[in-house]
């Protein structure tokens, strides 16, 4: 029987994902945060002021759960809400000075952890990996 490369690729991808996810969770928890907290702060750190919907789409957390996390981060003075002047239904979320300072401290360390995961992998291999994973993701969404 011949080797099913699609199945093998899937299994390897899932094992790699689990391993990477555990490493990232460990890094984030070392800063006293949960993954959802960090994801929201990171999105605001890199994209600036966002609506709850924009944050939800960026970090793949549903809007019901995201409101709870935002409330907790707001209570810690890491982010703040502001109303849209043109549409009262829209509320923007942005980092406070304290939140920005925290991310300026944490994010470079987090980025280093990610970079260490890819040590020994050439830029060309990374580009190929990105291309292949995007292709598989798009095919999955189409089906």
From TrEMBL:
Pfam short name (any one): MarR
MF terms in GO: DNA binding; DNA-binding transcription factor activity
SUPFAM superfamilies, per database record: Winged helix' DNA-binding domain (SSF46785)
Domain of life: Bacteria
Keyword Cell membrane among UniProt keywords: no
GO-annotated biological processes: response to stress
UniProt keyword terms in alphabetical order: DNA-binding, Transcription, Transcription regulation
UniProt keyword Transmembrane, yes or no: no
Ranges where the HTH marR-type domain occurs: 6-138
Gene3D superfamilies assigned: Winged helix-like DNA-binding domain superfamily/Winged helix DNA-binding domain
Record-given protein name: MarR family 2-MHQ and catechol resistance regulon transcriptional repressor
Upper taxonomic lineage: Bacteria, Bacillati, Bacillota, Bacilli, Bacillales
């Amino acid at each position: 029987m011949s080797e099913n490369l699609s199945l093998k690729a899937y299994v390897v991808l899932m094992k790699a994902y689990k391993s990477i996810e555990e490493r990232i969770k460990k890094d984030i928890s070392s800063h006293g945060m949960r993954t959802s907290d960090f994801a929201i702060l990171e999105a605001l750190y890199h994209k600036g002021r966002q609506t709850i919907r924009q944050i939800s789409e960026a970090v793949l957390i549903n809007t019901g759960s995201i409101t709870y996390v935002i409330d907790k981060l707001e209570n810690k003075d890491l982010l703040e809400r502001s109303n849209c002047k043109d549409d009262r239904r829209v509320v923007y979320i942005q980092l406070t000075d304290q939140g920005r300072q925290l991310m300026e401290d944490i994010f470079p360390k987090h980025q280093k952890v990610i970079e260490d995961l890819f040590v020994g992998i050439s830029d060309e291999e990374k580009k190929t990996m990105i291309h292949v994973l995007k292709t598989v993701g798009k095919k999955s969404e189409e089906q």
